TrEMBL record:
UniProt-listed InterPro entries: LRR_dom_sf
Name used for this protein in its record: F-box domain-containing protein
Organism encoding this protein: Glomus cerebriforme
Domain of life: Eukaryota
Length: 290
């Protein structure tokens, strides 16, 4: 392939298991590579040679997706000067080596992507990813960041950074805890282009979080219509009903629930959803697809 295919623009590679000589040569000879997808599986040693060759092509890349990021050295990240789309996914790799964490922490603290519009980071072994947003020059349109563990201090930094630095954002997916709700209010006040918000929570104390629904009512920008609440959010019957009742003067919403524990969601809640779905305040919900 390296001898025949030298003008590939989009290259997607699955189940890469190391510094494969043929793969390195294939990437090396590319002249027009714009988009690169790498999925690693069963890698024993971090792929430094592959990282080195990507570094030589990095200035032309505008889209990069890496699954199982621990499998490759992040040193090439600083050469991605024209990147618009970045997805780093470590969801299938819970085994993390300390030195690899240090590597990713370091590079995420020093790099910047001034043209980036889409950022997705899933279970990365680092809590410096909010710095990418801080240095994005306000161009981000979509953010999707999820971490494996609850970290209220990090989440506060992330939320505050989004509120300050993302005036153009349209779609937002992040972890939030009840202690972070003031920051969510600031995002809604400052990010007027927001049309979709997806919030998950660990909510270990099983707190009633009606305040989140009231914030949605009080300060949601006019464009916001799609809400997804995931994992362990809990609302009172009264707060749940009040949310939809007070939305009646706004555009119809899409409202989705993805439960970590649905024992609190009784028939009374289901009746509320049916009521506001029937009268058009809820345009669409996933709940009745379960």
């Amino acid at each position: 392939m390296a001898q025949i295919c030298q003008t590939i623009e989009v290259l997607n590679l699955w189940y890469c298991n190391g510094d494969i000589t043929g793969l390195i040569e294939l990437i090396k000879v590319q002249q027009n590579l714009r988009s690169l997808f790498l999925h690693f599986k069963n890698v024993n040693d971090q792929c430094s040679q592959l990282s080195n060759i990507i570094e030589t092509k990095a200035s032309k890349l505008n889209k990069l997706i890496i699954k199982s990021v621990n499998s490759i050295s992040p040193k090439f990240l600083s050469s991605l000067i024209n990147l618009q789309y970045l997805e780093l996914d470590n969801d299938d790799d819970e085994y993390v080596i300390y030195n690899q964490i240090i590597d990713w922490d370091y590079y995420l603290s020093i790099i910047s992507f001034p043209n980036i519009q889409y950022l997705k980071i899933i279970h990365l072994p680092s809590f410096n990813d909010y710095l990418l947003i801080e240095k994005s020059r306000g161009n981000l349109i979509e953010i999707n960041i999820r971490h494996r563990y609850k970290n209220i201090a990090y989440t506060e930094k992330l939320i505050n950074t989004i509120a300050r630095c993302c005036p153009k954002i349209e779609r937002l997916t992040i972890d939030v805890e009840p202690e972070n709700l003031d920051g969510i209010k600031e995002i809604l006040l400052n990010c007027s282009q927001l049309i979709e918000i997806d919030l998950s929570t660990k909510n270990d104390d099983q707190m009633i979080c009606d305040r989140l629904l009231k914030i949605f009512i009080d300060v949601s920008p006019n464009n916001l219509y799609k809400f997804s609440l995931c994992d362990f959010w809990i609302f009172s019957v009264g707060g749940f009903n009040s949310f939809f009742e007070n939305w009646k003067d706004k555009s119809p919403m899409e409202f989705n629930l993805y439960f970590g524990d649905e024992t609190w969601f009784t028939k009374e809640y289901e009746m509320i959803l049916r009521k506001y779905l029937a009268n058009g305040i809820i345009e669409k919900t996933n709940y009745f697809d379960y």
